[in-house]
Amino acid sequence: MRLRSLGHRAPLLWIALPFALGIASARACPTGLSVGVGLVVALAASIVAAARDWRTPIWAGLITVALGAAGAVAYELRRDQLIAYTGLPAREATLTLQLGREFGASRAQTDRFGGLGRIVGAPPHLRDLVGQRLQVSVHAYPPFSTAPARGATIVATGVLEPLPRRAGDADTFDAYLVDLGLNFRFARASLETVVDPPGLIDRCLAATLAWCRTCLGTGLDHRPDLQAALRAMLLGERHELSDTQETLFLRSGTMHLFAISGLHIGALALALHTLGLLARQPRPLILAGSTTVLAIYVGVVGAPPSAVRAFLMVTCVQAAFVWRRPGNALAGLVASAVLVLMLDPMQLFGAGFQMSYGIVAALLLLGLPLGDTWQQRWPAWPHLPPATWHAGHRVSAAVWHGGLRALGLAVAATLVSSISASAFFGWFTPGALLLNLAFIPLATLVVFAGLAALGCGALGATPLLVLFVRAAALIIASMQAVLVRYAGVPGMAWAVQPRWPSWSGWALVGLMGLLLHGYATKWEAKRGGFWPPVIWTVAMLVTGLKFV
């Protein structure tokens, strides 16, 4: 029997894969080499193709090489490294900065801004630095009582330090900054003056964030740990978590629940779409309203890359549905990936991009077909015709089939997360499969309860606000209680370290290749069925990790 989860097309893979390959090659090769080689090969391919019929395989090669060269160009333009500053020592400088995204940890300190910024003014001998993005750490000393906010333009004096070109040449935090496309850090800076305060939009977003924090803390003053966890899960403020909470979620492989991603954006989009349908609004109006609210939510939580990716992904899928285009979740995923990489090629190297797109791709390519196959192989009540089922049969069949599909999704997600979590977080968690099987639905309930609480707060229904907040807190408390017992089970978490720096990249590329090949061949048994991705992942974990 043909599975409904198979056969979906994603033509934009012809753009996404070579474009990503070009970005990766530009990162690995010396400056301009991959761009030059790609352009020369693309020119040669175009000359050959001009002498032949464009429908021959030469056309596919031409497109692939040209898109690879475009990816390399996009990387070089985004990185915009100034070769003259490479290897120079740190120096003191006074710069005019426009402050951008703020790192969550700095929000706990009112006298410090830590995040990203852009140089908009510099002394004459540093004039070529104007326009460069950099990591900023600014302290506000008297007469300033608080640190500047996101969106402000300031003058600050600090230590300007060039970052290495390649992430492999740096320590962990420097590697993170390099992978963001930054060339400098501006540390130990003191605020001199505020040239321009944040604009109206930034002030409104900051005020909305403060209101959301107040709503999500209502009725939980006696449980600051649950208050912190709820704010972290709904607003992405992981700095609110205590060291004990962070250790529990990190070592259990469930820390991803606190990253504003597809779980949060999808839940909010579903709630808004349902409300629009109940109000009998036209679909284009529902799309416009949902997109606006989602954009505001992404801005309120600080527009982290994971939230922006999820926003683009959900918007692509919703737009295809509303405009009645022949779209599907896989095509929407690839379309959002193309948009993200074109807007910011450096996201390809981030842990969030690799985990979010890798996991969602695994769910669509492997998880759904695996769950459907298990349902066909082990149906509920196989010896009873469905026409004879009573209510108990139907309920048990729904639970059984739903459990098989959920297990298939969990297996697919575990293949990706076991590689990425081991590489980026340093923990291999064999028990994360069963935990996520239960925790992801629970976290979804927390998100729905939190969103309902915010809606009640906006309507002034304080009793209902407290009810939903405490309901969400009760779910989080049960999750924490499970994790406390989980932490006492031996062998559930292992500290690991990759044997070579590029291990996770090769492991994920190989896994994605097997997933795409298996999906394209409909996971035929004569080609190994669903086993090749599992065997590959186990082999990579055994050969590429060492326990510390």
Structure description:
With 548 residues, the chain is an alpha+beta fold. Helix 9 (283-300) packs antiparallel against helix 10 (305-322) and helix 13 runs parallel beside helix 17 (531-544). Helix content is 58%, strand content 11%. The strands form 2 sheets. It has a 5-stranded mixed beta barrel with strand order 1-2-3-5-4.
Concise structural overview:
This protein has 548 residues and is α+β, with helices and mostly antiparallel strands.
Write the topology of this structure.
Elements: H1 13-28, H2 33-50, H3 57-79, E1 91-102, E2 112-121, E3 133-139, E4 153-162, H4 172-179, E5 184-196, H5 200-217, H6 224-235, H7 243-251, H8 262-278, H9 283-300, H10 305-322, H11 329-343, H12 351-377, H13 391-424, E6 427-428, H14 432-459, H15 462-487, E7 494-498, H16 503-520, H17 531-544, E8 545-547
Q: Which class of secondary structure composition applies to the elements?
A: alpha+beta
Taking the alpha carbons of the first and last residues, their distance comes to 47 Å
Largest β sheet strand count, sense and barrel closure: 5 strands, mixed, barrel
pLDDT averaged residue by residue:
84
Query: Could you tell me the strand content as a percent range?
Result: 5-15%
The stretches of 5 or more residues where confidence is low (pLDDT under 50) are: none
Shape: globular
Helix percent reads 55-70%
Oligomer: single chain
Attribute tags:
five-stranded mixed barrel; globular; 11% strand; 8 strands; alpha+beta
